[in-house]
């Protein structure tokens, strides 16, 4: 197995190489390749972040959390994506106590992401970070994201949103300095929000921007900016989100999947990965959990182009409205 060690400036170049190498697996060169489950991106802190993670939005209740995390660790996932607003941090913390030893893992083998609630944007951000860490009951959080560029209860057009997210960032920088969290980043930031933060980062550049990204919604300009700045773009709702089968049932996605001998979900996930974008699919069944990390194949260039040329429509909340 090739170990990835990526110098800071060239993280994105080496990530591209690793993505190509995963495709060789299908050709039988198993000893020289990086499997999707082992692909990592080197963050500004030099921490290595898995490119394939497990999403937990709407995954609630101690039994369900333990069950899906058990299955996902067995399948090879090493990143868990949570958020204060998902209401499952405590259950994840409890499950980890039992599951890490069960899977012969320690805390450092797992990458935990959680997010600042829009309710706590601004002056409450440091307390919110401490609360998430307490809920998760682990020594540190790997990645803490500002969930949304706005502040709950403030009119979207108001400058107060910008002031509040800048204050959140200052508290998060303090959180890194005090050892509560190792990396900080953002979610649902558009190009304008990113440029604002990059121009005034209080000493720490964002590590990650987690955004909606699937064939019906992608933003090449945002990807370019993130690549230029060494910020990892992480896709959410790659399959279209919960209770939405539009992409999974799309005729072109199905045709490409049939041609490659893969499922539509695998094609949608590999499409993002092949653009050097991290993914965090959510699934409940063992079959889905396993197939969503079994992504060692290549989508031919012409099919990548077809998938990238779908009409654009947003499924999730729209940050462009936030000043
Ligand atoms: N930062 C943000 O604002 C934000 C917003 C949304 C999501 N997220 C994060 O991103 C994660 C993923 O996004 P998402 O939860 O919206 O949706 P998603 O991963 O796009 O889709 C999840 C849905 O797809 C189904 N599914 C999973 N694997 C499948 C497969 N192989 N074949 C067919 N169906 C499959 C799941 O059903 P089953 O559960 O029945 O398997 C579930 O209904 C979230 O869980 C969360 O961690 C972040």
UniProtKB/TrEMBL annotation:
Assigned keywords, A-Z: NADP, Oxidoreductase, Signal
Listed InterPro entries: AKR (IPR020471), Aldo/ket_reductase_CS (IPR018170), NAD(P)_OxRdtase_dom_sf (IPR036812), NADP_OxRdtase_dom (IPR023210)
Domain of life: Eukaryota
UniProt-annotated site: Lowers pKa of active site Tyr, residues: 115
PROSITE patterns per UniProt: ALDOKETO_REDUCTASE_1 (PS00798), ALDOKETO_REDUCTASE_2 (PS00062)
Matching SUPFAM superfamilies: NAD(P)-linked oxidoreductase (SSF51430)
Binding-site residues, substrate: 147
GO molecular function terms attached to this record: oxidoreductase activity, acting on the CH-OH group of donors, NAD or NADP as acceptor
Keyword hit for Oxidoreductase: yes
Record carries keyword Manganese: no
Domain NADP-dependent oxidoreductase: 53-310
Annotated signal sequence range: 1-30
Catalytic machinery residues: 86 (proton donor)
Pfam families membership: Aldo_ket_red
The family this protein is said to belong to: Belongs to the aldo/keto reductase family.
Protein name, entry field: NADP-dependent oxidoreductase domain-containing protein
Species assigned in the record: Exocentrus adspersus
């Amino acid at each position: 197995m090739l170990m990835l060690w990526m110098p800071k400036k060239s993280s994105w170049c080496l990530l591209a190489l690793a993505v190509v190498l995963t495709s060789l697996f299908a050709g039988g060169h198993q000893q020289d390749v990086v499997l999707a489950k082992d692909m990592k991106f080197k963050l500004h802190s030099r921490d290595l972040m898995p490119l394939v993670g497990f999403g937990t939005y709407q995954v609630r209740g101690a039994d369900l959390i333990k069950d899906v995390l058990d299955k996902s660790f067995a399948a090879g996932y090493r990143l868990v994506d949570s958020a204060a607003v998902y209401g499952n941090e405590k259950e994840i913390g409890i499950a980890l106590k039992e599951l890490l030893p069960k899977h012969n893992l320690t805390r450092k083998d797992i990458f935990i992401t959680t997010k600042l609630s829009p309710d706590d944007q601004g002056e409450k951000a440091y307390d919110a970070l401490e609360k998430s860490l307490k809920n998760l009951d682990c020594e540190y959080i790997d990645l803490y994201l500002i969930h949304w560029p706005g502040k709950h209860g403030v009119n979207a057009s108001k400058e107060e949103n910008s002031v509040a997210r800048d204050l959140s960032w200052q508290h998060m920088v303090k959180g890194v300095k005090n050892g509560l969290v190792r990396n900080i980043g953002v979610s649902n930031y558009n190009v304008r929000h990113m440029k604002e933060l990059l121009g005034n980062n209080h000493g720490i550049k964002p590590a990650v921007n987690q955004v909606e990204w699937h064939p019906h919604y992608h933003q090449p300009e945002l990807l370019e900016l993130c690549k230029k700045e060494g910020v990892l773009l992480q896709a959410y709702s790659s399959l279209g989100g919960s209770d939405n089968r539009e992409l999974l049932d799309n005729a072109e996605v199905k045709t490409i999947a049939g041609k490659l001998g893969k499922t539509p979900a695998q094609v949608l996930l590999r499409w993002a990965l092949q653009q050097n974008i991290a993914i965090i699919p959510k699934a409940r069944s063992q079959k889905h959990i396993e197939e969503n990390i079994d992504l060692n194949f290549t989508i031919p260039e012409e099919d990548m182009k077809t998938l990238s040329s779908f009409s654009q429509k947003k499924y999730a909340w729209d940050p462009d409205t936030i000043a």
